Amino acid sequence: MQLPRLVDAALDRLVVPGYSRLGYAARRAGWDTLRAGSLDGRTVLVTGASGGLGAATARGLAALGARVELVVRDRGRGEQAAAALRAEHPDATVDVAECDVSSLADVRRYAAEVRAREAAVHGLVHNAGVMPPERTETAEGHELALATHVLGPFLLTRELRPVLRAGASPTSPSRVVFVSSGGMYTASLPTEDPEFRTGTYSGGAAYARTKRMQVVLAELLADDLAGDGIVVHSMHPGWADTPGVASSMPAFRRVTAPLLRTDEQGADTAVWLQAAAEAGHSTGVFWHDRAPRPTHWLPRGAETAPARAALWTLCVDATGGPA
Q1: Dihedral, 133, 139, 140, 142 alpha carbons, nearest 10
Q2: For 224-243, what is the mean pLDDT?
């Protein structure tokens, strides 16, 4: 039986029960099981797929029949993840491709390779993430969290537009999914200093505000790609016990360890957004545990139109693409 809407909303607003494995367990009782073979014939690219949520997302997609490409910075770790996936799903088709999403030059190279070898791509999951302990710039001069979470995904999505368009059909759109974070609720959209050049740098703050930017960017890209049969969504996985949490937030992990979700539980909604019919009937929605969620706790926190336009301009100017 599906969880009553008011109870579900209460779990979400209270955070601790909703984001933990308790919330996942309470909600999943009412979910339909994703059908094996539902992604047969579909190719999905997953960034940051050498471990954690990315690897779990790839496993979930492969279990449904998708051909999955693990997009990784470290080929050795990617090959290990691919071998583990094949051992679990012997019939799966899994490829590994190198790409540093924080490098715009590398994103362009990788996207050109994909366009040259793929007639169509049906799904793209932006999962690659970082939480820098100190402010770090890429070779192109962009703050690392911004480059990894926002600029690289923006460029990759637009560079892959032709093959994503080719993968769309009237009954089954291509799907782009941003793996954001519930931490984005603690941040507003930065407009004055998106590169975090001033003030005291905090990796946690940089992470939260770029995750906020991802949610807004998903809405903007949804509008931009609407005419191409491509839907764009964002989601957050709740509190999952990933290698990134262990390395970047050890104190948080120690306190919350009994409540943390498995990688598979955290990745469930990203997989569902690639496979479920409901997700193909909408675009620009923020999801958690297979349900739409508000993007702000308070209505007055909503971004202004100029702030949203400034984010789009930032992405276009930084990537040198057409408006």
Answers
A1: 0
A2: 90
Q: Is 2 helix (H, G, I), strand (E, B) or coil?
A: coil
pLDDT in tens, 26-79: 999 889 999 999 999 999 999 999 999 999 999 999 999 999 999 999 999 999
Question: Are the C-beta atoms of 74 and 151 separated by less than 8 Å?
Answer: no
CA 185 to chain centre: 16
Q: Centre a 10 Å sphere on the Cβ of residue 98 and count the other Cβ atoms it contains.
A: 15
Mean pLDDT over the full length of the chain:
93
Distances (CA, A) of 34 to 4, 42, 173: 21, 15, 18
CB distance 69 to 44 below 8 Å: yes
What are the residues whose beta carbons fall under 8 Å from the beta carbon of 139, sequence distance 6 or more?
103, 105
* Residue among 61, 25, 24, 60 at smallest CA distance from 289: 24
Determine whether 24 is an active site residue: no
Instruction: Pick the catalytic residue from 24, 110, 185, 207.
Output: 207
